[in-house]
Design goal:
4-stranded parallel β-sheet, 4 strands
């Protein structure tokens, strides 16, 4: 099953290049599960792919994992430490909380990703999965700003299954999910539910089976984050 799904995604990625007249893909490699899977998939689709490792006060272990995976996949990488750029930028701004500051990190990385996309006529490969996208758990115009989303219809649990089909190291598969926006941050800690709980609730919501408190809370999150999944609203004078 997962071998077939992986192949479908690879063919879809190839179609994406043909349809847009672009040459390849660029993605940010964080050392996490989703970006590792996306790297493996785009490498199967084309040799024209580039992994950017863009630390901003990042965990050295994550950088090592990203580098090791890129080496095993034979993906060309570019390492650019954005910590100094980030620190210089926030000095110009009023003090913000850690979420506000973390969002700057995600948007700064996306600036660099699109620079390289423009430079090489590549598409920016996003790494979000269905669970994160449904709940709006991404930075608008940061990691949510991309051209193509190979994992966008896969729940987090399904992403883990696909990872094993692609021989992603178990160390990465079992890593505690984190956006790396501040020290000690974890996805599940910030959202308040485990990914298993989120996946189960979102499936029920999709089927109209909202029956428990978890579903009700997450349904509200889905509604409040709808603007993050839509293009900007336009006031139409002539309609």
């Amino acid at each position: 099953m997962w071998k077939d799904i992986a192949q479908q995604i690879v063919e879809w990625l190839k179609d994406g290049l043909r349809d847009t007249g672009t040459k390849g893909f660029v993605l940010g490699m964080s050392g996490g599960l989703d970006s590792s899977i996306c790297a493996a998939l785009i490498k199967q689709a084309t040799d024209e792919c580039l992994g950017l490792i863009l630390p901003i006060e990042s965990d050295v272990k994550d950088l090592d994992d990203a580098t090791a995976l890129a080496t095993s996949l034979n993906i060309k990488t570019q390492y650019i430490d954005l910590t100094t750029t980030y620190n210089n930028l926030v000095k110009l701004l009023p003090d913000g909380d850690r979420v506000t500051s973390g969002n700057i990190k995600a948007r700064l990385r996306m600036i660099v990703l699109y620079y390289y996309a423009n430079l090489h006529n590549y598409l920016v490969c996003g790494t979000g999965n269905k669970t994160e996208i449904s709940l709006g758990y991404f930075t608008k115009h940061g990691d949510g700003a991309c051209d193509i989303l190979p994992l966008g219809d896969l729940y987090k649990g399904e992403v883990r299954e696909l990872a094993r089909e692609l021989d992603i190291p178990e160390e990465i598969i079992n890593k505690v999910p984190s956006a790396g926006l501040w020290f000690g941050q974890t996805d599940e800690g910030e959202i308040g539910f485990t990914y298993d709980q989120m996946d189960e609730a979102l499936r029920k919501i999709d089927k109209g089976e909202v029956i428990d408190e978890t579903c009700r809370k997450l349904r509200d999150v889905v509604k409040r984050s709808a603007h993050k999944r839509e293009i900007p609203k336009i006031f139409y004078l002539r309609r």
